[in-house]
TrEMBL record:
Pfam families hit by this protein: LytTR
GO molecular function: DNA binding; phosphorelay response regulator activity
Protein name, UniProt field: Transcriptional regulator, LytTR family
Annotated source species: Spirosoma fluviale
Coiled coil: none
Length: 145
């Protein structure tokens, strides 16, 4: 059963357009001996694994960096990125649907399902509703139905 919170998933073009609207800058990530800039709007979700964070990108690629999820959370845009569970942060631009059941799950357009912790469920729903409202109020954004 799918929730009605997400009327339709955003297209790649809409994500690119909204990245400009939300002023999503590039994210500088540390690598072995150098730093690399990654476009923040191409991150679908981040997954915490101890002292490391695994990035899942829209093109299907993954990247692990040696920073905790908590440190990464502070570097991300709070308008677009939410933390529904202690192990994951998701990008609302890639939200496909919310699936209720025994355990609430957020479905992403890449096919991933992320559990929403019981303690964070009501806050997560409020964040999604707020994000959807903000999309509706944007003058220059006109989603394709």
């Amino acid at each position: 059963m799918k929730s009605t919170l997400v009327p339709h998933p955003l297209t790649k073009r809409e994500v690119e357009q909204l990245a400009g609207e939300f002023a999503m800058s590039d994210l500088t990530l540390p690598f072995w001996g150098y730093r690399k800039k990654m476009p923040m709007h191409r991150i679908v979700r981040l997954e915490g694994e101890g002292n490391y964070t695994l990035f899942h990108f829209a093109d299907g690629s993954q990247l692990m960096v040696s920073l905790t999820l908590k440190k990464m959370e502070s570097r991300l845009s709070s308008k677009v990125f939410v933390r529904p569970h202690k192990k994951n942060i998701i990008n609302l631009l890639y939200l496909e649907g919310i699936y209720p059941g025994e355990q609430l799950c957020a479905g992403l357009i890449n096919g991933d399902r992320v559990e929403v912790s019981r303690r964070k469920a009501s806050r997560f729903i409020k964040q999604v509703k707020g994000f959807q409202q903000e999309l509706k109020t944007m003058d220059s954004f006109s989603p394709i139905a």
